[in-house]
Structures are given as structure tokens and as C-alpha cells.
Amino acid sequence: MTIAQAIDPVTFEVIWHRLLDITEEMGIKYMRTSGSPVLVGAYDASTGITTSDGRLVAMGPYITTQAHVLRLIIESTIRLRRDDPGFRDGDMFICNDPYLGATHQPDVATVAPVFYKDALRAWVGSSGHWLDIGGPEPGGFTVSAQSVFDEGLRMPPTRIVDGGHIREDLVELILSQIREPLVELDLRGQIVADQWGRQRLLELYEEYGADTVGSVMEQAIEYVSRGMKARLRDLPDGIWREVQYLDHDGHGPSLRPIVCTLTKRGEELILDFAGSAAEVAGFANCTFSGLRAAALSGICVALAYDLPWNDGVADAVKILAPPRTIVTAEHPTPVSLATISAIIATLNLVLSVASKMLLSSPRYHAEAMANWCGSSLGISVVGVNDRGLLTVLPEASHFAAGCGARTYADGVDTGGIIINTTANIPSIEQTEAEYPVLYLFRRQLTDSGGPGTYRGGRSAGVGMIPYGGSGHETTFSGVGSDIPNAAGLAGGLPGSTVRYLHFTGAGDVAALAAAGALPTQVDDIPGLRQVRSINMSHARFPTDAVEYHNWQGGGGYGDPILRDVNLVAQDLKNGAVSCDAASSVYGVVVNSSGEVDMPATDACRAHIRAERLRRPPARDVLETDELWKSATEWVSRTAASGRTYYGDVVLIDFDCDRTSCLACDYQLTGAKEDFRLGTLLEASPAWAAGPVRGEDYRAERVVLRRYYCPQCARQLEAEVGIVGGPRAAFVIASRGPA
Amino acid sequence: MQFIVGVDVGGTFTDASAIRIEDGASFSAKVPTTPSDLLIGLLDALDGLAAEAALPTHDLLRGTVKFAHGTTQTSNVMFTWSGSKAGLITTEGFRDELLMMRARGRVAGLSLSERRHLRRTQKPPAIVPAERIVEVTERIDARGRVLVRLDRADAERAVDRLVGLGVEAIAVALLWSPRNPEHELLVADVIRAKAPGIHVTLSHEIAPVLGEYERASTASVNAYVAPTVEDYFRRVEGALRNRGLTVPVLVVQADGGVAQVAQSVPIRTIESGPAAGMVAVQALAQTVGLSDVIATDVGGTTFKTGLLVDGKWGFSRETIINQYTLLMPMVDLVSIGAGGGSIAWVDDSRLRIGPMSAGASPGPAAYGWGGEQATVTDADVALGFIDPARFLGGKLPLRPDLARSALQPIADQLFEGDVTRAAAGIRQVVDAQMADLVRKATLERGHDPRRFTLMAYGGAGPLHAASYAHGLGICRIVIPRNATVYSAYGAAASDLRNTVEISVDAGLMADTSALESAFAEIEERTVALLRQQGVEDGDIAISRSADMRYERQLHDIRVPLPASIRDQNQVIGAFENRYVALYGAGSRLPHARLQLLRIGVEAVGRTRSPDPRPSTKPPPPLTPSVDTRRIYWPEAGEWIETPAYDGAALSPGHVVAGPAVIDEPGTTVSLPRGATALIDPYDNFQITLDREVK
């Protein structure tokens, strides 16, 4: 480890800028060499530079979880390989072992120690999603897996490059496990990226000296760590708890909670995952490496939005979790779905606890966001093209997911997915040029954005049919069909769920075209409509069948009946909101020519308020669990004065020990109580928030809880949970600095 | 007397440049741009230019044998969202593609730090809102076969609907139109028949390549800007004809060429100013015998760089404007937000520069226009590099006191109150960022910056070039005498140029005779367009390229191909050489098959440009420097009483050794110790740097 020497601001800035450039260049080299549509089309990769002991200094663009794994992988590499075979200049190690730092098997990292003047100075690394990793399923998500041995190739840190020489025997060993020859480009792309990073780093050492560069690396981490601590000091102390659910364990539908309790005191930030479900038998779990990558990525987005992203963020966060939960699975529990099940759910969970903390400080209101689309999917359409080649199309349109509403604006429609800073969906023409399928439509989905004063971003749906070639099969995996993961904020409602439909006997392309038109929206698709599980492997996709799926929209912000009627009218015109939802959810009535009927709207909204006031007090229904009681004990002992606000929803006045509705000043609870206890509670199915909220699946236990002010009927909070499951809560111990 | 005239209407200034053919003498003028009507500034600049040449404007224009015009009009329409009411006709099922923007529209063109503040990112306003996107029932497949035929009545219904909404321009972007344009052509026919006044953009014509979103975006942006831009050029032609111009106005294009107004595509004028700068670089490189050049243009808000390799610039295929993707061949330039107006600020313990810029308003603090934040220019003023009394030829006296007080807070926070160290720090950080961009751009394109000569122009280029060149290990710099009006000068030097690229079928790779005839066909098209503009065949030069990759890779690279292809191995060899140059030895995949995606042809029709003539006069005795001033040289870390030369007093043959500065009308050439400038026979500053520069 380099002893940090004081570096003047000019030298720091010059070297720091160069380090960021190097990670970005590594990313570009990697992308350009690889041919994988997952990587290049969806940018599912990242790069990084770390200190000699693996602490992340700078990360490249794209998917942040991919960069956050590098530290644990390098630590494992150091622990396991330091003595045998040891490290020397020009070596590179490959690793995708989820118990040793990786998130799941298809995400492979290649890391390289960088030596200068005979001393180990740093590491460079690149990590990315490979198109295939062997094992029973193309693409690597093994729906049926009972243990890690049923999943793809697992590589502990393995020396793939020996003193600058690529070990072609190992390359062959790896590639011989893998059905997709294109993966060779993924592998070589990582090597190219690391070689580039190493070379550029050596030039930097040559120019400025290894000590100076090493000190800049240390200072870059300290700078971020200081920035995080300053931010934490700014925020109020308290405890915020949120819950997300996985609706599939790999073997069948089931609703399993992941619970995150955020405790913030002074400069300390603890994320505690106690209360989460035990690890499951199927592939939906993640290991601690996945949990860490997810939690840090969530904190980066929520709290470090204006800082560089490195391990200075990690230094500010303490992650606690009991062993062998669904987010801390251990060997040999399967985890191949982790990134698009436990990891993305955890990331969203951390984002929502952090957003609620931001919302508890007037100074940071604007930085809070409702959840973005809370799930991701792994979809491959296999087919033999008319040249006789087996092709595996990773259908990735779902990266155009709905973004969460802001506290002052709608979420972005089809704007991308939270884990990716540079989301991108494949081009239809480029896909049709390569694969034997025809797209029938790709449309934004009506009512998919979570309703609210500010609406969540819309998602979309896509219809496709086999075209040319033969032997089509679909493998579909992911979570989020039974329960909406994109929760709203401050009374906003959740976005849509995932839905996968298969239409048998729809007719093949020739027959449909001969009939004059191809179906161009979901309601026009002929044939027998079947709702399919979103975890299916090798399901036949005959040439006369049509498949459709849509994904999750973003959560909304604020009470939907407070939405500006003109915005609702605009949404109706653009097809963002249906007539039904406009009246039932937003309380907006339009006449036959599409203009808002103001008197009818006023009456409709008044009726909704009246109905709300008939709901029972929440205190009678909610139970306070022991875990929450013990976690919040310190809060009541903390001295607090002054007042703070939670969004534009409630006022928390410590001097008067009172939490009240901001709209009507009605006292809900005392200052150090979860204000929900003082509200009226309506429990309803999730589709009260709009269509495609799980009604096609087994959603009996899913409940949408809406909390109303007993005096003015304002919807103050809304959450999705399961009957009898852990629920969201928060208490503020003391407000932050004025 | 005959002249070649170039004008460049930029965001802040309108520049004009003229070369007198008889003796090669050049003239230039710089006036403020008039945003409310750009034509006024253009005419002002021409009056100024005529005055420099001591002629009435009418005589200058009558004597003009070539008139080339570069403009930022198109970008301005986008930046101010002041385009036309445009509509889009697209394939049923896919009307949302333009609005979805492949999801990446939310962050396209943003820096990494901007992308990481997710809450702030959003898609841009819709240039064609949802209600003006109309679907037609039709479908063509990947091979260009019609699956569902477009019914004329359906096209008429779609057009009626848009006409009813009052659109001024229509973009047509149907799936697979580059493979089979018949449906787009049918829609165009319907529009012309029903609403002949409406501007039409067909996606397969403007961007004949794959990618439905990119094509729709390109066509829609063109439809959005076209009415305004075309109206402007019609007015320019009329106004100049009335003032004596007899030749057609040539419009500078992003690919570095010019085209007559009728052949010019509005979006292709985006970034044409910097492209024209590259043309001037190429011309100058040829004159002084250089083939590998890094061009750097340092303006008020941005730093741009591009490469000339073997005398040729590179092309890029797409650009982003207001987060919309535009597909078009353009001169390959990259930029960062670093220039004279970039604001310096303190972030915790860090000294940050930009990306915010004081721009032209309020401008750097030293301008005295109310700017309070320290900029790079303020640092240059505080260090003595810029003579306050001679800035812009004395027209704008600068206020060093204001520069220093703007720097004071930065000095207090990071440099123990020492303003000089703060200013020196700002200069070093910004120079390092410029060097980083050049290094990244050069290495990414497979080249080593150290074997290049650097050219620097734009207002702040000559002031910083020696410093960032040194950071790059470059030891030779050329600064053109007309560095501050270089784009206008480049416009005058531009040739007629037509660049076309098309997507091709994968099978073409194996069939050399089909490939040869595909090339011949687009060559015919490009040449025809030049002939229409009066270019003689003997003046046309053609070059070919192909975009290739290993099969199923998704990124491709551009490979120059020979003029005639007889053997597939010529193509393979060309690809492999380029691939290894870009990604390093060992990156080649000997077993993988190659794929040909697009082929391109660039046809250049030489227009009249006088060859610069070297000075034959013997070097006059060196005028002693009129002045010295105290300058703090960050490289040396000390104040030095530095000779300050008046540029006007230097002529070919003069040699100036650093430390020194040379004051030019719009800029200052800085020469640290270890740098030596020679005024070459063509009146440029040729600077050599010792390995140690202080």
C-alpha cells in the first residue's frame, strides 16, 4: 500500500482526470472488441482501476454493479493466488465465482495486477455479462437448478494471462464449456481492455512517479468518502425500512421478502437486511458479493450522484446481513438469476429507503425519486436460421423501462433501467438482420407508469413471431410478474408488472400477411391467449405462434387525484393513460371529444375523497413487529428539536411532539412515530393502481396499502406488500442541520 | 481582381476570409453574429472584408469566383427549439420508436458525470410530438421483400391527417426502407401530389443505413430544421446576388465539403464550421509538407480535436444534437467543454474547470461585462499572457483587476491566497485536460500522438498549444497566421464533396464482382451529383471505404479500400491491418469470419483554390521587440520579464525564441523557454519544442 503523500490540487486534478479517462477508454476498447449484443446493445459491463489491495479508485461507464464486484474479486485473487502461482507483471486472472466476488456465473471479470519498478502498484479490471457460460441453459440462467453444480461454468480466480502470454489452453478449456462461439470475443475483449488499462497506467507512472499516482488514488477515495460523510451529516437521523419481494424462487411462484432497514446517525449509514427470507432452493438468490454490489450501486445513485463513484462510497456504508438469507446465499446454493432477481430488487430497495431519507430533509427533497422499473429479464429466443446456424437472440427491449417519478416532474417514459447509466435497447432492424424473427410491434404501454401527482415513466411491450429458420424456443427468466416492484413515493402508486403472453395458432407470417395485416398491438393478436410464467426454459415457439411481453413501469410521486388535470388530458391524448384509469385512479373525466369535463372531474375527485374517509384507522390494522421495536429504541432516547418535513406530505414538529398532514394540519401521530399509524388504511389488490399489476398471475396475497389523512383524505403514502408480511416504516430521530 | 471568399457564421462571431487570386494575398474580418437575423451579420462581415481589401463590397462580390458559407444556423434552430411544425410517417406498430429513443435518448451525448446524476436526466422535448406521428399499414422484411403492401389510400389518409394538423415538413421513416425504398417513395409521391408546399425528408435518402430509430431521428431532425435553414439560404442567395455575386453560394457540409444550396441537406451543415477548420488544416499541411497532424481548435467554450493521417481526415458516422442521434458522414472531431470561457471552481479540495462556461455573456471577469466567476481567460490575463490593452486589437480593453478578484476566492481556498498560483493551476489543469482529450482521441484511433505535428487555432489555441503539446510529447507545432478566422478560411478552401454510404447485404463479402458493381453504382450516384454542380470529370477524385467487423461483433471499423477490387484477400488484408492497429497485436481472430456492413464512396470535385505562394523576399532584419511584459510561466514557476512581439512586425524568415509572446489581433502565441518559432515562407508560425520546456 502506498503511503499517501500530500498532493497539490493541480497535480491531483491532472492525474485524477487521466485515471477517469483510462477507465473510460478500457470500456470503449472492451465494447468495440466484443460482439455480444448483451454487452454492446445493452452495455452490461464495466471497468475499473483499484489500489494495490483492491479498493476501487475509478470506474468506467455503464453498469455500476459490474464495477462494484472488482474489489471482492481482487481480494479473493490476492487471498487465493498470492503464493501460488503468485503474481508477476503481465498476469491476468479471470473469475466468475459468485462465492468469491462475482454476482452470478454469466458475469465474468478479468483482473490484472499492475507492476511498476518491480512493485505491485494497482489493479485494473473489466467485468461483463457473457452471452453464455455453459451449463444446461443457453445464456446461463438455470431455471431448474438445485445447486450451483447445475449451473454454468464456475471459475475461481484463474491465471488466464501468464506474464503477457494468453494461455490458449485455458481459453480453449473455457470455450469448450460454452455453446456460443461469440463468447471468445467477450473473453478477448476483457483482455484487451485490461492490457490497455495497464499500459496507460504504466505511462502515468513513468510520467509522474508511482508514489505520486498512488497518493492521488488514495486521495480520490478520501475525497469521495469525505463527500459522503458531509452529505450524511446534512441529513436527518432516523430509521427507514422498506420491503421488496421476489415472486419466484426458480422452482415455482412464491413471494419472498427482502427487507432493508437503513439507520442513519451522524456520519454513520447502516443498511441491515435482517428479516429477509431465508435462501431458497432455486436460482433467485444472491451471495454477499451480489448484495454488496447492489447496495453500493443504490447508494451511489441515491446519495453520491454528484461525486465520482469509487470505494469512498463503500467506506461510508456499513452493510449487515444474517447468513444464508436470499441475499446472502452460500455454497452450494444456486444464484444464476441473481442479477435480475435478488440484486436488482435489492438495488431498488436501497434506492427507496435512501429516497425516503432524502425526502425527510427539505434540503434534499428534489433528489428523491420513486422507484424505477424494479425488475429485469433474461429472454433468449433460440432458432436455427436459414443458413442452418443456431442463433440465440437475447431480447433486451425491456431495458427501455419506466423511470421513477421525481418530486417535481414525471418519470421518464421508456428511459432505461436504474442499474445502467447508459441504457440502450437493440435496434429492430439490426435484430431482424441477424436472427430469424419478425417484430410485430414495440409500443409504449398505456397505464404502465405508476399514477401520481407526477406519473412514473411508461414501460413498453413487444410482439414477435418466428420468421425464417426453424426450431424456435423461448427461455424466459426474471421476477416481477406477480407483484409490482416499482413502488411509488409519498402517495404515488406502483408501475406495471411484467406480463408474458403466448398466442397459439395465431398463424404464421405468410398467413397473417396474406390476411392483409400483421397484428400491431396486443389486443389484435389472433389465436389462443395463454399467460405464461416468466420463468420458462426451452418453451417451443412454433412459427404460427406470436409472443408478447411487457415490462415494469416506474413508480409515481404524490396523490394521483392531485395531478394537474391538463397533464392527465395530455396523457390521455398520448395514450399514456386510459380513460378508465383517468377516472378511477386520477379522478379525471373527459367527454367524448377528449376534453376534460371539469364539473364531472370535481365530482369524481370529491367522491374518491369521500370513499377514502370511510376506511378504517391504520392503527387498528397494523402491527408493530419486534424487529422494528428494537431497531428504533434509540430514536426515542435521542434529543430532538425544531421541525422537518417529509416531502410535501407531513410536517414533523419535535418541539410539539407532533406529526401532521401538511395539507390540512391534522395531527396524525407524535413526532417520533411512523405517521402511517395515524392514517386511514385501504388495502386492495395491486391492480387498483391500474391494469397489468399482476392480475394475470397468482397475486392473491399481494396487497396495495394506501394511507389517507383522516381529515382531508389526501393519499399520504402507498406501498405494495403481502398479507402478513413485513411492512415499510420510518421514524426520524432528529432533523439534520437547518 | 478575382477572389475566393469564405464566411463562417458562428454562435458569437461571424468571420469572413478572402484570398486574392492574383497575388495570393489574404484578408479577413470578424464581426458579432446577429442572432435575430444572421444575414445582417453576414453582410456586415462582407463589408468589413471589402474594406480590408480596399474595395466596395459590390466589387468584391462581383470579382468573387467562389463563395463558400459555413453556418451554425441548424444547431441554433435545435438549441433554441425553434424548428418547424414537423410530422412523421412510420410503419404501423412502431410509432413509439422515435419517442422511445432506444432508451438511450435520456443520456445520449451527456458526460459520464451528468449521466450519473440519474434524477436530472431526461429525454429532450419531442421534435415530433406523439400526435404528429402517424402510422401506415405496411411491412418490408430484412431482405427487402414486401410482406404487407402499402395501400396508396392509406398513405393519403396519413398525409391528410398531418396536413390537417398544419405541418410544414414531413419525415418518412419506414422499417427496412434502405433495403427497399418503394413504400417511402410512394408516401413521398402522395405528399407531393396532395401538399406540394410541404418539405419532405425520406429516411432512406438522408441515411441509407440500418437502424430504425437513428434513421427516423435523422429524418425528423432534418424535417424540423429544414424550412428555417432553407429559407435562410434562399435569402442569402438573393441578397448576395443583389450585391453583385454571380456565382452560386456553396454551403459548407459536415463532411468537410461544400454543396450548392439545392444539393445541400440542412442537417449536414451541423458542425460544418469545425469541419471547415479541418479543411484548412489539410490545405496547410499539404502546403508545408506535413501528412500527420493533430488539429486543435480552442474556442470560448469548447476544445475540439481531429486527426489528419497520411494527409486525410477521418470520418464519423453519427453525431448527437440535443440528445437526438443524427446519422451522416462527418469529419471525425471530438470535443470537451474546455475553452477560454470555462469557469474554474473549487469542489471540496479540488480545483475544477468547466464544464460550465461564461460564454459571450457575461464572459470572463476581465471583459468587465459583469462576469464574477474566474475563467481560463482570467487566468491567462492574471498571468500576463494576454496584454489587456491589445485584446482584439485594442477594441476590448481588459480589466486584470477584475480577473484577479475573480480568482481570489479560489486562491484563498486552495492556494493560501496566492492568486498567481491559482491562475497557474487553472492553466495547468485545463491544459492537461486538453492533452488528455487529444491523447484519448489519438490512441483510440490507433495512433501515437508523439509522431504528429500539432496545429492550433481558435482564439485560445495559440495561447495554450505549447503547453498541451508538451504534455503530449509532441515537439512540433504549426499555428496559422489567420488562426482566429480559420473556419472561414477553410470554407474558402473547401472542395465540392459528396459522401454516400449504404448498408449492404452480408453476402457481398464473398462476391467480389457484386461488390465491385455495388461500388460502381454508388460512385455513379456521387459523381452525378458533382456533375450537376458543374464539376468536370477530370476534377473528380473518388475514394472507397467499407465498414467491417468480425461476424456477429456489433462494433465495426472503417477500412479504406483500393479503387478496384479483384480479390477478396485485398478486403481481408485491409481489415486486418486496421483491426490490429486499433486493438493491438493479438486481437486478431484468425478463425472468425468477416462481415461487410456498409460501403461508402467519397467523391471530391476540386474547386478553384489558389495555391499559396511562398514569400521569396529575403528575411528582413529582425525588428527588436517593441515591448516586454511580466508573465508568470507555470512551466518555469516564476515571473519572467518576457519579450512581447507585435505579430504584424514579423515576416517570413524571422525567428523568435522563448520565453516570448507574439501578439496577434485575436490571440497571443505563447512560447515558453525551450520553444522556438520560425515564420515560414507561407507566413505561419512553425514552433519546435525542446524536450524540456520551461
What does this structure look like?
The complex is a heterodimer of chains A (738) and B (694). Chain A is of the alpha+beta class. Helices cover 28% and strands 24% of the residues of chain A. In chain A, strands 2-1-5-4-3-6-7 form a 7-stranded antiparallel β-sheet, with helices on both faces. In chain A, helix 1 runs antiparallel to helix 5, helix 3 crosses helix 7 and helix 7 runs parallel beside helix 9. The longest helix of chain A is centred in the first third of the chain and has 26 residues. With 694 residues, chain B is of the alpha+beta class. Chain B is 32% helix and 28% strand. Chain B contains 17 helices and 33 strands. In chain B, the strands form 8 sheets. In chain B, strands 13, 14, 15, 18, 21, 22, 29, 32 and 33 form a 9-stranded mixed β-sheet that branches. A 6-stranded mixed β-sheet of chain B has the order 3-2-1-4-11-12, sandwiched between helices. A 4-stranded parallel β-sheet of chain B has the order 6-5-9-10, sandwiched between helices. Chain B is globular, with a radius of gyration of 26 Å. The two termini of chain B are 47 Å apart.
CATH topology of the domain at 81-226 in chain B: Rossmann fold
The N- to C-terminal Cα distance of chain A equals 40 Å
SS-derived structural category of chain A: alpha+beta
Shape of chain B: globular
- Counting DSSP H or I runs of 4 or more residues, the number of helices of chain A is 17
Largest sheet of chain B: 9 strands, mixed
The CATH level-2 architecture of the domain at 81-226 in chain B is identified as 3-Layer(aba) Sandwich
Distance between the termini of chain B: 47 Å
Structural class of chain B: alpha+beta
For the biggest sheet of chain A, the summary is: 7 strands, antiparallel
The shape of chain A is globular
Total beta strands of chain A: 28
Please report the number of helical segments of chain B. Answer: 17
Low-pLDDT ranges of chain B = none
